[in-house]
Amino acid sequence: MSPYRTDRILIGTLRCAAVVSGLIVAVVALFLVSESVPALRQIGPYRFFTDSAWHPAPHSGESTFNLVPMIVGTLTVTAGALALATPLGLGSAMFLRFYAPPKLGVIYRKIIELLAGIPSVVFGFWGLVTIVPLINSIHAPGASLLAGICILAIMILPTVALVSDAAFEVVPKEYVKGAAALGLSRWATIRGVVIPSAKSGLFTAIILQTGRALGETMAVLMVCGNVVQVPKSVFEPVRTLTANIALEMAYALDPHRSALFVSGLLLLTLVAGLVLLADVLSRRYECSQ
Amino acid sequence: MKHKYSLHLLLVLLISALLTGLANAAEKKLILTGSSTIAPLVSEIAKRYEKENPGLRVDVQTGGSSRGVADARRGLADIGMVSRELKAEEDDLLAFAIAKDGICLITNQSNPVASLSDEQVVKIYRGEITNWKEVGGNDAPITVVNKAEGRSTLELFLKHYGLKNQEVKAHVIIGDNEQGVKTVSGNPNALGYVSIGTAEFDAADGVPIKLLPVGGVEASMANVKSGEFPLSRPLNLVVRGQPEGFASDFIRFASSSKVDDIVKEQYFVPVSN
């Protein structure tokens, strides 16, 4: 077999793989749109934002389809988890790379990798039997926005830590050595040299974890209480878009079912917007460097 | 170049489609979909039925009673599983009860309240009573646990107490029974409702929950069987039109005394006699 022929086979295989993965995204998006159309047509896009509440099942009398509390739920849980996990994850990565003694560093990294591998339903169950009762002892009912934020923060923390660690790793060694030669302290090196040059990688870490936080379902479903409302405090229960789909999809009939697809479509749009934002921002960072 | 590869792909797809087609033709298949309460029971019954009828495969899928009704209507399933009485507008379907199930209110074991009147339950779920001391318990806020929309347990509960879901002021909304038991066992001030089968099994298993009587009748499997317990429901297999062939045979098998032991194992009440 000539090298030329191997090349051709490889290119063919790679093209197929690329087409398949691209097609999957397209098909999913198309499917979501086509399943949402009946609801968008019958109910109209505005009622998803202006209806009085979310009571989509036809047996409960007049059906109403307000998605706003769920959008707020998704955004607040995600924002809270980000606010908790980002400093913790960045701190872990810095500790791992610049402060930890080598042996401890190895063990610490293994622990974080293990944390990244724990299935979400395990986190959810753990949250339900420990975090929720704990919060309940402070403020009833326990299953709340706060519980969701805590669980989600723990879940996305390893992603931030590992991806930012990888970003720190590719910072050229000469930079760090140069900073040391200038007599900068370790913290000054990190702040003035490492973070600026790893900025786009750190940014990727944050975007990746945001995507995961937006899409997380099982754990959030188990600890958040799932009451459809705009929370007035962190102790009140909320329902996220993903939990809404998971809770109701199995039992939903038209137009309820179609309305759930609309919430899926909304979620996809949120994530797409996030990816776009990340692209724009990281390009700007690269330009400024 | 491009053509050649798409041709290969097409060939692979065709062959795999052919193979799966052949495999399916080799055995007859009976599809049941519907209530997640009935599905585990029917799965066990199906295993025994498959043993007695080699060459037949029974496929059981969950998705709720609403799906059971819809699939039986559209012919997507041979038999639907519906864990409630059929509604008036569902008279195009025939229902065959294979067992009975009851729903009961549960509280944490540490809760001193021994019973709640129907009126108290309604007031608690409407948010008019919000503290346990108003019904003779501790001075603690009540955590109201409700089920997600579309679940037949929710429908039965609301119907029995004459409630509308819009007026229920819940603090926690749950999906399946186990999630309800875990929520109540982890919260000393919670009030929820689940299937008696699940509750009795978990309580006997040492889970710290307490089953409250309804209308003065103790919540137990025995009282569901005798028909005394007010909050109960039939577990139905539904079909569109008179069942034929394997479907009819399976329904006869599932409602016969041959499966009583399976029904009891799953903490439901047999109806065969």
Task: Give me some keywords for this one.
heterodimer, A: 289 residues, mainly alpha, MetI-like fold, 12 helices, 2 strands, 76% helix, B: 273 residues, alpha/beta, D-Maltodextrin-Binding Protein, domain 2, ten-stranded mixed β-sheet, 10 helices
What's the structural blueprint in terms of helices and strands?
The complex is a heterodimer of chains A (289) and B (273).
Chain A: H1 3-42, H2 47-50, E1 54-55, E2 64-65, H3 68-99, H4 102-117, H5 120-138, H6 145-169, H7 173-181, H8 186-197, H9 199-215, H10 218-223, H11 241-248, H12 256-288
Antiparallel strand pairs in A: 1-2
Chain B: H1 2-26, E1 28-34, H2 39-52, E2 56-62, H3 65-74, E3 79-82, E4 93-108, H4 118-126, E5 143-147, H5 152-161, E6 172-174, H6 177-185, E7 190-195, H7 196-204, E8 209-211, H8 221-225, E9 232-240, H9 245-254, H10 260-265, E10 269-270
Parallel strand pairs in B: 1-2, 1-3, 5-6, 5-7
Antiparallel strand pairs in B: 3-9, 4-7, 4-8, 4-9, 4-10
What would you say this structure looks like, in words?
The complex is a heterodimer of chains A (289) and B (273). Chain A is 76% helix and 1% strand. By secondary structure, chain A is mainly α. Chain A has a domain at 67-253: Orthogonal Bundle (MetI-like fold), CATH 1.10.3720.10. Chain A is globular, with a radius of gyration of 23 Å. Chain B is an alpha/beta fold and 273 residues long. Chain B folds into 2 domains: 2-92 and 237-270, Periplasmic binding protein-like II (D-Maltodextrin-Binding Protein, domain 2), CATH 3.40.190; 101-226, Periplasmic binding protein-like II (D-Maltodextrin-Binding Protein, domain 2, 3-Layer(aba) Sandwich). Chain B has helices at 2-26, 39-52, 65-74, 118-126, 152-161, 177-185, 196-204, 221-225, 245-254, 260-265, and strands spanning 28-34, 56-62, 79-82, 93-108, 143-147, 172-174, 190-195, 209-211, 232-240, 269-270. In chain B, strands 1, 2, 3, 4, 5, 6, 7, 8, 9 and 10 form a 10-stranded mixed beta sheet that branches. The interface between A and B is large, with 37 and 35 residues.
